[in-house]
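Progress report, Aim 2. The chain analyzed during this reporting quarter is listed below.
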Amino acid sequence: MAAEFDPGIRILAFFLADHAEAVGGKVYANGAFWNRLNSASYPSTHHFAVAAVLEVPWRAQRQTHTFSVRFDDADGGSMGARIDGQFQVDPNPALPDGEPTLIPLAALVNGFVVTEAGAYVAVLEVDGTEQARWSFHAVVAGPNPV
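Predicted C-alpha cells for the chain:
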C-alpha cells in the first residue's frame, strides 16, 4: 500500500508590501512583492506590511498553531523586529471532508529601522519550523527613487 502524500501546512504566498490586510478570508495588498527599500541615507526608518497565505490540511485543523516572522541581516543576525501569533482552523462546513483551508495573514510593520544599505531577509516560521523566506535589499537612492 502506497503512503498517502501529506505535505503538512504549506505556504502558498509570503511577501512584503506597502500595505496589506487579511479580511474575509482574503489578502488585500497594495504595492506588493517588492524587494528593495530605498533611502537617501542610513540609518532609516520604514513602514510596510508582511503577508502570507497558508494552506492548512484537514488533519491539522482544530489545533492551535503558532507563526512568527522575523527579520535578519545578511549574516543571519536578528534585526530585532519580530511578529508572533497563533491561529486555529475549524473545518469549513461548505467544503467536503478532507479539504484543506486557506488562512490569510497580514501585519503592519511600523518603525522598522535599517541601519545600513545591504541584504536582508524576512523569515516565516510555522509551529517553530522555517517555512519561507523573502529577500530584500536596502539601497541608497536619490531624491526620486523608483
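The two ends are 56 Å apart (CA to CA). Residues 45 and 113 are 4 Å apart (CA to CA). These observations will guide the mutagenesis work planned for the next reporting period.
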